[in-house]
Specification:
The protein has eight helices and no strands. Helix 3 runs antiparallel to helix 4. By secondary structure, the chain is mainly α. The protein has a single domain, classed as CDP-alcohol phosphotransferase transmembrane (TM) domain (Four Helix Bundle (Hemerythrin (Met), subunit A), Up-down Bundle).
Length: about 200
């Protein structure tokens, strides 16, 4: 859903990409920094119940900064002709590990119902997997579905900030993510079915 907005943001971040390139940051290095920040976010979430509630804000800052790196690495790669198949694969793998770590941290913390947490984790992985499988079959999947990665991160960030004032909000956010992410998988499945059906009718 936020694909068009993401493209505008990418255009706005050209100057930041130039700075990153100037100081020697390659797309893979930026991807790695983003993963480290995601792991820091996951660890902070996991520690929150036994520490001051402001850790939720810190976890959110790590989360959003990680998302910034996830956007910046692609801009640097395209702007300075550093995009490679291996780099895209590396970035995708780190993103999946980052998502899993963050949701695992929230589950471990007890800030959400573990069943809903696992449902969110599974949905998150399957949203990405369904896109990969579809695009391998030649079907474009960008912007298909309510809860792509950017939307999921924003919902989680908003829920975390609200949870600073009202702790159960994070659990409600996870429930929303579980529903939306798995619904997105269904949306993508239907999209693939319709596209393949159209293709088969044209070939016939």
């Amino acid at each position: 859903m936020l694909t068009k907005l993401k493209k505008r943001i990418q255009q706005m971040l050209t100057s930041e990409a130039k700075v990153a390139h100037k100081i020697g940051l390659t797309p893979n290095k930026i991807s790695t920094i983003g993963f480290i920040l995601a792991f820091a976010s996951a660890t902070t979430y996991a520690l929150t119940p036994n520490q001051p509630p402001w850790l939720l804000i810190l976890a959110t800052i790590f989360l959003l900064t990680s998302g910034f790196c996830d956007t910046l690495d692609g801009i640097v790669a395209r702007t300075f002709q550093q995009a490679t198949v291996l780099g895209g694969f590396f970035d995708s793998i780190l993103d999946r590990y980052a998502d899993a770590a963050i949701y695992a941290g929230i589950i471990i913390s007890g800030l959400c119902n573990p069943i809903w947490g696992l449902a969110t984790l599974a949905g998150s992985v399957l949203v990405s997997y369904s896109r990969a499988r579809a695009e391998a079959a030649g079907i474009k999947m960008e912007s298909v579905g309510f809860a792509e990665r950017a939307e999921r991160m924003l919902i989680l960030a908003a829920s975390s900030i609200i949870a600073f004032f009202y702790l159960p909000a994070l659990n409600y956010g996870i429930i929303l993510l579980a529903v939306l992410s798995n619904f997105t998988v269904i949306q993508r499945g239907l999209h693939v079915y319709n596209q393949l059906k159209k293709k088969s009718s044209i070939d016939a």
